[in-house]
Amino acid sequence: MIDLYFFPSPNTWKVAIMLEECGLPYQVRLVDITKDEQLTDEFQAISPNGRVPAIVDLDADGGPQAVFESGAILVYLAEKTGMFLPRSGPGRIAAMEWLFWQMGGLGPMAGQAHHFIRYKAEGNEYAVKRYQAEVARLYGVLDRRLRGREWIAEAYGIADMASWGWVWFHRMHGQSLDDFPDVSRWFFAMASRPAVQRARALAVNRLPDSVQAIFDGPFYQGDADKGAQVSYVQSAHETSASSEAQ
After folding, report:
1. What is the three-class DSSP state of 150?
2. CA 52 to CA 37: how far, in whole Å?
3. Which end of the chain has fewer beta carbons closer than 10 Å to its terminal beta carbon, N or C?
4. Contact 9, 33 (CB under 8 A)
5. How many CB atoms lie within 10 A of CB 73?
6. Is 234 helix (H, G, I), strand (E, B) or coil?
7. 163, 142 contact by CB (below 8 A)
């Protein structure tokens, strides 16, 4: 059993996707950052940086093993299961390159763009322009990488899981998937995967009312693209369920 310390975000979704794809048993431990629960001594004993996600592998050799930082968690789970990360060779190199690209580039820059676009204030115009342009550059890098490829590395794996949740919020980064057709194709291919749908459902089914209100607010629900994405995912899920029932 694995304890997943969770609050809805692109970084926690990537770990939830991996757990679902691997079929590992896990239980969600909500860390309500709206109440500063990430700052408690108990949580920081697991995640010294005071950020979600974190996991505790209760079945690890030698006793419970805590792991923090989403990229480290993905690698840990891949090596634990032997899934979604080649053990050696060019496939492993590509997966690690693109995992670190997301961790060091797409995630931080998209997070900054999201922040300055959402909390617009006088004098923020330079920051909005700078981060929005850098995120557009990074989406372009990913679009070129995906040209002629189904997945980011040589096969579906942790590099895809790491980036997908960030692209979900593309409108909040000031981007349109219409400008990045190969990213769009890849995004919806991932959205159709049952494990991805189950991981995303954690944002709907595992939240207290006070936190759910944030995701029901106009900033999250006022995005036409997001509505299309939700409809697509629901349709794909219903189609899959219908096929299994036949």
Report:
1. coil
2. 10
3. C
4. no
5. 24
6. helix
7. yes
**Three-state SS for 31?**
coil
Name the residue with tokens 């053990």: 87
Burial class (CB in 10 A: 0-12, 13-18, 19+), 213: exposed
**Segment 77-118, tens digit of pLDDT:** 999 999 999 999 999 999 999 999 999 999 999 999 999 988
CA distances from residue 230 to 9, 11, 223 in whole angstroms, order as listed: 16, 19, 11
Alpha carbon separation from 6 to 90, 150, 153 (Å, rounded): 32, 29, 27
Q: Does 129 have pLDDT greater than 50?
A: yes
Task: Say whether pLDDT at 222 is over 80.
Answer: no
- Structural domains in the chain, sorted by start: 90-193 (1.20.1050.10)
Six token digits for residue 6: 């969770």
CA dihedral angle for residue 201, residue 111, residue 37, residue 66, rounded to 10 degrees: 80
The answer to whether residues 54 and 229 touch, using CB atoms and an 8 Å cutoff, is: no
